[in-house]
Amino acid sequence: MRPGWSWMMRGPGTPFDRRSLSERRRVKSAAGRRVQWARALLAGWLWLGAGQPSLLAQSPVEPAARAAALFEAGQNAHQAGKLSEALGLYDEALALDDALAPIHFQRGMALLGLNRPAEAVAAFERCVAHQPDFRRGWLRLGAAALKIGDAAKAERAFAKALELNPDDAAARLQLARLALARAAAPAALELLAPLDAGDAEAEVNALRGQALLQMNRPADAIAALSKAIAREPSWAEARRRRGDAYAAQNDLEAALTDWQAAYAAAPESELAGDIAGALLQLNRVDAAQSFLKSARAAFPADARLAAFAAEAARDGALAQAAQMLRAGKFAESAAAYAPLVASDPEAAAPRAGLATALFKLERFGEAAQNFEILRRRQPEIAATYFFLGVCYDKMGDYRAALAAYEAFLARADGVHNRLEIEKVQLRLPSLRRQAEQSKPRKP
Prior knowledge:
Blueprint lengths: L20 H27 L5 H5 L4 H18 L3 H14 L4 H13 L3 H14 L4 H13 L3 H14 L4 H13 L3 H8 L8 H14 L3 H14 L4 H13 L3 H14 L3 H13 L3 H14 L4 H24 L3 H14 L4 H13 L3 H14 L4 H14 L2 H14 L6 H20 L6
Helix pairs in contact: 1-3, 1-5, 3-4, 4-5, 5-6, 6-7, 7-8, 8-9, 9-10, 9-11, 10-11, 11-12, 11-13, 12-13, 13-14, 14-15, 15-16, 15-17, 16-17, 17-18, 17-19, 18-19, 19-20, 20-21, 21-22, 22-23
């Protein structure tokens, strides 16, 4: 909930928010005024007889006075944070007259503070049933409905609040959020259109950015979300959504920066998976492994993080094997590549590394077996045919070597494969004679 609007959804017992001390004092003062407002409203309600002439017709007016006294006592207990006591007093007052909308409203507030949202929904429904033009009652009904996961009821309540006051920014923001939750981005943009300035400007831009992202307009989404972040740089949700927009543009570095900032402020498993995936895509394996170690400790049951951890471990082992190959440690490299090939036979990179290490060890038969697998899977790669040609040549299978060299020349790039082309062209005349004189290889 954004600062400046969170009071619309808060009641006693709700979590501490990010507002400044002065801001909270202003809200506390406003809360006191709301209690005074509720008391005044009840007094007016009772003076009018709550729409029930039978009350006024009673000779003694003790029931009405008693209800007002109970409500007053309930309000005092409510302000003191004694929510259960306040609830009991509100119930006593309603037992005298169930048609008092202000008491139903305050009863709902107490129930929200006691974390009993389903009962709060019923209380706010009774409130607006008795006073259908009570906008705050509809707002609180919507907020309580959200707490129990009833988005449809919440949307109807906020829509009624907006109908009563089209300038109600809180209702517009809530309706825009609900529209985005059901992927109705155009409806969300329409709701947000009148809210370009004011205290809610940051949230308006953040929601607008989310809507634009849903509409596959990542550049516009980034522009809107950047305005929100300029107002509130530490806002985790806006940073996350802008990261999503950068990712949609395939700008993983920018996405990662925003995602990491969002995760630092508000860690969650889905975001952790996005970060790990980006690090692996950027081939930052060490960073991915380090991040996944802490993320998996925080979210040990997350299957996506487990899969990324396994991928990072494979990538790390692959990087170590490649480093040994580059360092000329061919036996160690072959030993490192072998389990990687066994665990993922379809992966090209570890098999290519193993084939190369075996080739360097002059284990040409084993190398040829792996190069043949690579050739069948990726027949367009010229280098594979060159290495196959050398392997078969060294093994004395001149017919197979000739076929491999000719396939290499047909695919080779004159610039990138210039040296290999020259070697093959020098070898071909004598190889052809040897191939003609040799016996065909047994299948």
